[in-house]
Amino acid sequence: MGYRIDGLQYANWSQKVFRQMRQGGLDAVHVTIAYHETFRETVLNIERWNRWFDEFPDLIMKGRLAGDVREARETGRTAIFFGFQNPSPIEDDIGLVEILHDLGARFMQLTYNNQSLLATGCYEDDDTGLTRMGRQVVAEMNRVGMVVDMSHSAERSTLEAIEHSTRPIAITHANPAFWQPALRNKSDAVLRALANSGGMLGFSLYPHHLKHKSACTLQSFCEMIARTAGIMGPERLGIGSDLCQDQPDSVVEWMRVGRWTRQIDYGEGSASAPGFPPMPDWYRDNRDIGNIQTGLRDAGFSDKEVAGIMGDNWLRFFEESFIPGDPP
């Protein structure tokens, strides 16, 4: 059986969630450990994860290299890889990129919806592309082995990151705009550029980015993946569920508002219901990931292609991405 890897989650972490990862056979998960936190606040989040690794050593382990996914499989655990949905943890100091990589960070988004010091987010009216610091930080991320993630970035910024990066980048949790128009979902031009550069797309199950939202069917989701495979090739595709299980609605406010505004930013949700929408009934939590595997087979993918999308493609990408220096 191929590996099962989820390219992005931000659950309210607990023993229950870790056990459900094991029940779903998840070999690895990229977890968000910062949205708008400063460097020091991010270090405190890493410290909290270290306590969980000590408390639940039979369920989870810290991931640093692709080989840790194999070790997790062999020992019946889930490897946890750290990432940021915003560059705020590096503040305005490029030297913190290497330090955070040393602490275990393996992914960093250049933006989270808004303009950052590095690039433009998908909610801004004007997309000015990578900034001067952005180009320098991308080069530094390439050097140390931290993945450039453009999930919440605007079009020009995303295309410039793909072009400027000497390593393949990732869009860990977004869907094609042809299927569901949304500010975060990506154009065909981005999908082609991503594939041509060797990058990865993780399909999101966050309901605001699904066709028919919480009522999205498994068949529709997997048919969308099949159509995307026609654009990018199946070897460039994975799952990035964006699962926010058990999170209170206040966390949505933290995601969207952070410290940059005093007003509630409802994003792409309803102004009357700014919290988390219900997940589709075929993917409520990590225990349901096997339903996607079944849906992909029903959509016409071969067993090898299904194994790739469920995790083997992410594992190959990890092997290429997490080591310092030039990619193999």
Key phrases:
328 residues; alpha/beta; three-stranded parallel sheet
Description:
The chain is of the alpha/beta class. It has a single domain (89-321), classed as TIM Barrel (Alpha-Beta Barrel). Helices cover 39% and strands 12% of the residues. The protein has eleven helices and nine strands. The strands form two sheets. Strands 1, 2, 3, 4, 5 and 6 form a six-stranded parallel β-sheet that branches. A three-stranded parallel β-sheet has the order 7-8-9. Helix 1 (15-23) links the parallel strand 1 (5-9) and strand 2 (28-34). Helix 8 packs across helix 10 and helix 10 (289-298) packs across helix 11 (303-321). The radius of gyration is 18 Å and the shape is globular. It starts with a strand and ends in a 7-residue tail after the last helix. The mean pLDDT is 94.
Number of helices: 11
Approximate shape: globular
Estimate what percentage of residues fall within beta strands.
5-15%
The rounded distance between the terminal residues' Cα atoms is 26 Å
CATH topology (fold) name: TIM Barrel
Instruction: Return the CATH architecture.
Output: Alpha-Beta Barrel
Give start-end ranges of low-pLDDT stretches. Answer: none
CATH top level assignment:
Alpha Beta
Number of domains: 1
Tell me about the largest β-sheet: 6 strands, parallel
Structural class determined from secondary elements: alpha/beta
Question: If you average the pLDDT, what whole number results?
Answer: 94
Task: Give the H and E element order.
Answer: EHEHEHEHEHEHEHEHEHHH
The tally of strands reads 9
